[in-house]
Each structure stands twice: as structure tokens, then as C-alpha cells.
């Protein structure tokens, strides 16, 4: 029994030793990841001083920058902006309307809107040109939070010497004269130096890659864990930034002339994994319903009214004769003086002609228009049906008929169509060539 208890004791001691060694090794690895150049850096922007031990502030760099009066003034204004407009003072969460807009438009819902204070312009929604000075543009919509990872890329298309481009994420409101990453709740990658600024111009860490014209910088973000990471020309940079759980907007800033092109997913990414896992901000195409097909009458109030009027057309012989005779243009002075009112019964001859299914019939005036219409404006004389037996005044369908929609009375296109319909090519009033004598057309006239 004593031997068995001794063996169990030695077994427990061995297991405890192994577990202790594993814990020590794990702690050492975690410490190295937080302290070495390529590791994990927290972006917890709380007011506690523990953050300075994770990402130290370069005091020498601070003293160097603060000697510049222009920079000191900009830094002071930036701090005042943070105090006056703290994070949360503006609701930047996606609303229901914005979510529906994203569903309809897809990735095209994101763009960089034009700002009057911007010294530059935006081309094609995502191509930005800076003319000079300190400028910042932010997307119109924040990153969604429904998926685990979102990703976008920034390509440097042109840059002048001594110009710094900062690409990253920021919250709103944000001072437009400050680079992204210089103020709280933002992170920005300086493409010219390789430094990543996180929530302060003095709090930065060095990454190995610097961008020139043609290089592509990628920014990835996990909204659930608050992790942000970068890629360079399609390769992931082995450094991650945690604790950035905010409503973030893709942001681009620069302090000189340059131009960049941003890809939210409307094109293929250089980073292959983002294409395979579909890390774009939204699908390439939305689910916007197509417009109705031409010729489909379902759900059309106008066509429904036209069909109902057609079914109520008077079929008496007198009205049919008037309808046929009215197709010819009448230039008599008597007809030019005739006036009528469309407020009469909708089953008159003109209303039947309007709803007879001919092309261009929808250009006719509304029959409820109380203004008298002269026959000079309309090529068709207005006559009421004289056969009272065919007029259904007590028909509720006829009484509630609203007719076609109202159109401009002096619409030139409508008038031309009406004139074209009024021309009768078989009218004998058109001058004919004189009759040729029969003896001229006779085949024996030349023989004689």
C-alpha cells in the first residue's frame, strides 16, 4: 500500500511540474508577443495608464513635434475637438433604412461623399485625389457587424515627395484636419513610413512595409473581437491590434498632393483569402427588384381604367359611324368654334376613341378637366351619344371611372401625335393630278 501511494504521489508531482512548465512557457510567449515588434498590440482607448505600458509613447518624438508651432496648434485643436465631441455624441450605428439600402445596392452602397472643406475631389465614388494640405475623407457608411471579418484595400496611384498617406479606420465625429490615427478611437497606417498610429500621434508602432506608387495596403477588421490587421500587396502583416470595438468608418487622409483608389469589394482583392472567404463589405450585387416589364398591365391603375372604359364603349350604329367619320381632319369654321367640356359623360365618342387601345391615346386630356377644350386643340369634334338607351348613367362602374391621368394640354408631342392620327390618306380633298385623256394613253394613238 505504501508503495502504491508513493507512486501516485510521484505521478502527481510529475503532472504538476509539466503543467507548471507549460504555464511558464505560455506566459513568456504572451509577454514576447506584446513587447516585440511583430506581435499583438491592444487598442483599448480607456483613460487608464495601463495602455502606455502596452504601446509606449515616444517622448523624444513628442518633444520634436511640439516644437513646431503649427503642429502644436493642430494638436491643441484636436484635443479640444475630442472634449467637445466625445465618442457616442453622434449615433453612427446602421439604421434600418441604411441596412435596406445596403441590401438593395450591395457593395456600391459605400462611397466617399464630397465635402466642401476637402481640398480635392472624389471620382467614381472611391477614387480620391488630394491637391494639398491636410485632408481627410470618411465613407458614408460604417463597417457592418453581422459577419466576423470585413476587409478593404487602398491602392496608391500617385504621390508627390514628402507626402504622407494614412489609411485606416476612425469613428465619427472626427476632425477633418487631422490624420487618421492621430485622435482617439482611430487607427491609421502611414504608407510612407510604415508606422501605425493608434488613437494618438505619439502612440505608434513600426511595421516593415512602406508603400510607393502601385502598392496596395489592405485593412481587415473583426467587429466582434475588435481586432484590426493589415496586408501589404496581398500578404498579411503578422501584427494584430485588439480592443477596437467601435462603429468604424473606412478613412483616408493625406498631408500633400496624392491620389488613391479604394476597393470595398467591387473588384477582386489582391489578398486571395479575402476573395475566397468573401470578406468584402457587402455582396457585389444587391437584391434590387427589377422594374416592371413593358406591356404588363397588372397593378397599373391607368391601364385598368383604360380597360374598363373600353368595355363600356357604346356600340350603337350611330356612335360607330361618328367614330369612323371623326378620324378625318375637319377644318370647317363651324367645327373650329365648337367647344365642349370633358366633365360630361365619359362614354362620349371622344372618350371611346381615347380608350380604344390606339397608340398615343394616353396623351389625351383628362375627362374631368372642367376647362373647355376647343376643337383647334383637338382634331376630333366632340359629340355626345344621341342614343340614350346605350348610356348607362346608373352604372356605378361608369360613374366611378377616373379615366387616364392628366397630361399637359399644350404638350407638343401630344399635339403632333393627335395631328398624325387625324390625317386621312384616302381623303379626296388632297389635290390629285389632272386626268390624262384617253387618246393619249391609247396604244393606237402613235400608230395613227
From TrEMBL:
Regions that span the bilayer: 9-34
Keyword entries, A-Z: Membrane, Transmembrane, Transmembrane helix
Q: Where is the composition biased (Polar residues)?
A: 326-355
Q: Which PROSITE patterns match?
A: B302_SPRY
The record ties this protein, via InterPro entries, to: B30.2/SPRY (IPR001870), B30.2/SPRY_sf (IPR043136), ConA-like_dom_sf (IPR013320), SPRY_dom (IPR003877)
Q: Where is the B30.2/SPRY domain?
A: 70-269
Q: Where is this region: Disordered?
A: 326-373, 428-448
Q: Does the keyword Signal apply?
A: no
- Pfam families according to UniProt: SPRY (PF00622)
The record, for SUPFAM superfamilies, names:
Concanavalin A-like lectins/glucanases
- Mind telling me what this protein is named? B30.2/SPRY domain-containing protein
Q: Please name the source species.
A: Smittium megazygosporum
Amino acid at each position: 500500500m505504501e508503495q502504491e501511494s508513493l507512486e501516485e504521489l510521484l505521478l502527481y508531482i510529475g503532472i504538476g511540474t509539466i503543467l507548471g512548465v507549460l504555464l511558464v512557457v505560455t506566459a513568456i510567449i504572451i509577454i514576447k508577443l506584446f513587447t516585440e515588434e511583430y506581435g499583438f498590440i491592444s487598442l483599448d482607448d480607456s483613460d487608464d495608464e495601463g495602455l502606455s505600458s502596452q504601446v509606449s509613447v515616444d517622448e523624444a518624438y513628442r518633444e520634436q513635434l511640439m516644437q513646431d508651432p503649427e503642429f502644436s496648434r493642430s494638436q491643441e485643436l484636436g484635443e479640444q475637438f475630442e472634449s467637445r465631441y466625445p465618442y457616442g455624441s453622434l449615433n453612427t450605428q446602421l439604421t434600418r433604412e441604411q441596412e435596406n439600402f445596403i441590401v438593395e445596392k450591395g457593395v456600391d452602397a459605400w462611397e466617399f461623399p464630397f465635402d466642401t472643406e476637402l481640398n480635392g475631389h472624389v471620382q467614381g465614388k472611391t477614387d480620391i485625389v488630394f491637391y494639398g494640405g491636410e485632408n481627410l475623407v470618411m465613407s458614408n457608411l460604417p463597417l457592418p457587424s453581422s459577419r466576423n471579418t470585413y476587409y478593404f484595400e487602398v491602392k496608391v496611384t500617385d504621390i508627390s515627395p514628402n507626402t504622407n498617406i494614412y489609411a485606416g479606420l476612425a469613428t465619427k465625429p472626427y476632425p477633418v484636419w487631422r490624420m487618421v490615427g492621430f485622435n482617439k478611437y482611430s487607427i491609421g497606417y502611414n504608407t510612407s513610413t510604415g508606422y501605425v498610429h493608434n488613437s494618438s500621434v505619439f502612440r505608434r508602432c513600426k511595421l516593415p512595409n512602406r508603400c510607393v506608387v502601385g502598392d496596395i495596403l489592405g485593412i481587415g477588421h473583426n467587429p466582434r473581437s475588435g481586432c484590426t490587421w493589415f496586408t501589404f500587396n496581398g500578404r498579411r502583416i503578422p501584427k494584430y491590434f485588439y480592443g477596437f470595438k467601435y462603429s468604424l468608418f473606412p478613412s483616408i487622409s493625406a498631408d500633400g498632393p496624392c491620389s488613391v483608389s479604394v476597393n470595398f469589394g467591387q473588384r477582386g482583392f489582391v489578398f486571395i483569402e479575402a476573395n475566397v472567404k468573401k470578406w468584402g463589405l457587402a455582396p457585389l450585387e444587391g437584391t434590387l427588384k427589377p422594374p416592371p416589364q413593358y406591356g404588363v398591365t397588372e397593378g397599373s391603375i391607368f391601364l385598368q381604367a383604360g380597360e374598363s372604359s373600353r368595355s363600356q364603349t357604346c356600340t350603337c350604329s350611330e356612335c360607330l359611324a361618328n367614330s369612323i367619320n371623326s378620324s378625318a381632319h375637319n377644318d370647317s369654321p363651324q367645327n373650329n368654334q365648337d367647344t365642349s367640356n370633358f366633365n360630361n359623360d365619359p362614354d362620349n365618342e371622344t372618350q371611346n376613341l381615347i380608350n380604344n387601345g390606339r397608340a398615343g391615346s394616353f396623351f389625351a386630356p383628362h375627362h374631368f378637366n372642367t376647362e373647355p377644350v376647343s376643337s383647334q386643340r383637338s382634331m376630333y369634334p366632340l359629340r355626345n351619344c344621341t342614343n340614350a338607351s346605350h348610356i348607362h348613367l346608373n352604372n356605378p362602374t361608369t360613374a366611378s371611372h377616373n379615366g387616364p391621368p392628366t397630361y399637359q394640354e399644350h404638350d407638343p408631342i401630344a399635339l403632333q401625335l393627335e395631328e398624325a392620327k387625324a390625317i386621312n390618306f384616302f381623303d379626296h380633298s388632297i389635290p390629285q393630278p389632272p386626268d390624262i385623256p384617253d387618246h393619249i394613253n391609247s396604244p393606237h394613238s402613235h400608230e395613227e
